[in-house]
Design a protein that fits this description.
By secondary structure, the protein is of the alpha+beta class. The protein has helices at about 5-15, 20-25, 40-50, 135-155, 160-175, and strands spanning about 55-65, 75-85, 100-110, 115-125.
């Protein structure tokens, strides 16, 4: 078991980078929303959906540590750089890597090691700044925004109301980052 929250963070980064679902499970606190008593089902889900096969892990930057409400709780901020790649050819699919940030919560187990309890993932990409991207509902909210802008773009460009909506949407996206 990792001796510090930072060791837990770094080892989990390696666990994802080297496709080690068993370690991800072992280093996850029971309070985590993904935790399951059915380890086989959980490992299969990690293997199929959450191993980041479409990305090359480029960098992990550990930022600041904050003490939690007790000595058994700590928070770490981090920044991860991932390069999108084609799963078959392993070649980059875009020129620039993607950068995500997370404020992670860690808890100390009864055995003395540190476990990953939760995290709020954000992106530094334009239009996504300050939006939490932890699960499907967060992505669903983002999809609604994208669909709304697409709808405006599909409207008649000569319609002054449509042009005004488009300009307002562009302005809002620029404010977000």
């Amino acid at each position: 078991m990792p001796e510090t929250p930072e060791c837990c963070l770094r080892s989990r980064y390696c666990g994802f980078a080297f496709r080690l679902p068993k370690y991800i499970i072992k280093s996850t606190a029971k309070s985590n929303r993904d935790w399951s008593t059915d380890k086989v089902k959980w490992a299969r889900k990690l293997h199929r959906e959450q191993m980041f096969d479409s990305f090359k892990f480029m960098n992990l930057e550990v930022l600041e540590r904050e003490q939690g409400d007790s000595e058994r709780e700590a928070f770490l901020s981090m920044r991860v750089t991932l390069q999108p790649i084609d799963e078959k050819t392993r070649l980059p699919t875009q020129a620039m890597p993607m950068v995500f940030a997370e404020r992670s919560k860690f808890t100390k187990s009864s055995k003395g090691g540190w476990l990953y309890a939760a995290g709020a993932v954000t992106s530094e990409a334009s239009g996504l700044k300050d939006r939490v991207l932890n699960d499907e509902s967060d992505l669903g909210s983002l999809k609604k925004d994208v669909d709304w802008v697409r709808g405006i773009l599909n409207e008649d460009e000569k319609d002054p109301e449509a042009v005004a909506k488009y300009n307002a949407a562009v302005s809002e996206l620029q404010k977000r980052g």
